[in-house]
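Private note to self, pasted from the team thread so I don't lose it. Backbone tokens:
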């Protein structure tokens, strides 16, 4: 019943790390640490291999990457390829769909000549122009936050915001207080900042 309530209130999707902890799975922060640091520069002077920057290949070597992702990355310049790789790893979404979104919303100066994002996106050129700067800003902020705070802080922030949303919902609060008073008290304490 509680799951149905969360679905009906738009709270069914919780941060991945929180779900893993609730299931008893431990979160491994190496991925985001890996995402904040570019790989060693042993390939810094080399030319792209089949259109893919060697540093990107080094960066993604520990991830299961579908070959189709590299086909998408060939449409952007090497600096953007590395940025997309860092975003995918930091977000734990090394997927074709996520790569397609990031390539589609790449600023025009970072695209290879002759490639138009509308070719792979189901949006118009006007929509792409309007949304590209916003996604670029969010991506930069996320990578900057990952570098400054590290993965654990980002995971705690996401979990805290989810708990705040949970405890701001009157139906969820009533259900927890009536059926799970112990959990309600713990969630309430977690969602209220400690007094100093």
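Design output:
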């Amino acid at each position: 019943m509680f799951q149905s309530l969360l679905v009906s209130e738009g709270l069914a999707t919780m941060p991945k790390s929180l779900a893993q902890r609730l299931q008893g799975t431990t979160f491994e922060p190496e991925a985001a640490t890996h995402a904040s640091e570019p790989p060693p520069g042993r390939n810094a002077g080399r030319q792209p291999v089949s259109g893919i920057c060697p540093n990107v290949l080094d960066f993604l070597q520990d991830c299961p990457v579908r070959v189709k992702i590299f086909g998408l990355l060939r449409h952007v310049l090497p600096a953007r390829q590395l940025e997309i790789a860092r975003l995918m790893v930091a977000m734990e979404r090394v997927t074709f769909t996520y790569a397609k979104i990031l390539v589609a919303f790449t600023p025009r100066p970072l695209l290879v000549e002759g490639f138009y994002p509308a070719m792979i996106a189901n949006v118009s050129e006007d929509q792409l122009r309007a949304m590209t700067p916003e996604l670029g800003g969010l991506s930069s902020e996320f990578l900057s936050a990952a570098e400054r705070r590290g993965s654990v802080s980002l995971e705690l922030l996401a979990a805290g915001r989810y708990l705040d949303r949970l405890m701001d919902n009157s139906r969820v609060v009533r259900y927890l207080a009536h059926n799970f008073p112990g959990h309600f008290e713990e969630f309430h304490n977690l969602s209220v900042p400690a007094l100093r």
